[in-house]
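Shipment paperwork, digital attachment
Item: protein structure file
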Amino acid sequence: MTNYKHVWYSSHDGLKLYARDYQSIGSDEAAKPVVLCMHGLTRNSADFEGICQHLADNYRLIVVDQRGRGLSAYDPEPANYQPATYVEDMFALLKHLDISSLTLMGTSMGGIMAMIMSAMKPELIDGLIINDIGPELNPVGLARIQGYVGKASPVFSWQDAAQQSKQTLGAAFPDFTEQDWLEFARRTYREDLSGNPVLDYDPAIAAPIKASEGQSLSLDLWPVFKQSVDKPMLLLRGELSDLLAISCVTKMTTLKPDMQFAQVPNVGHAPLLDEAIAVTAIKQFLQTIA
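Attachment content:
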């Protein structure tokens, strides 16, 4: 059986932030390797519920809500919704938990954060699991993200929320059933004071994207990636991904020939990491580090 502790900590600028600390009943958490799980732009800690069920017996899993998402406080200054700020928050969390050795697992924006963190403090990082992101972003996927972040119409039932999720991301998950979409909505929406589902993030996270015409998401991270090529690394890609191009994967492999790679069939951006191929690849990768 797996559950998690609630972790509350403060950012450098005084925001109250939240993370899940997954624990396996009756186990010695102090003896387990640590994995820090970081979600994508519009998501939250619930994104990792599936993979955590597979890993929690053998690893300590710290799963975050970035500022402006989930249970973490919203930032009154939208300009702070940037990877550099989130990375600073992650180092504050590691200090709060007294963690000095860990593997990073990041989906999309979380993968960008993982590369930056590894370049900044390589002595802390044992390895990186990067989910459907690379040092450069496919403009097609970037334009799609810019088209929906912070722009959702109101919904008034969970069925409406599920349908809105399907309209936004249906191309990425063509095999989803109606029940899958309802479960997806439950992880990405919350109820407001009136009991209506609303997306579980601050709409203002879109402000830096709009202000920079997307440049905040399209940084050239090749120099950062090159600083991590000596680290064990697993790259996952959705077969239908419109954000991580095969050409980018090829270049990453050229720069890091020993990088492990797994592609999740018939899934776009981004794999949920509970797919069988993803679970197997992640387990095998973590075993090689351990």
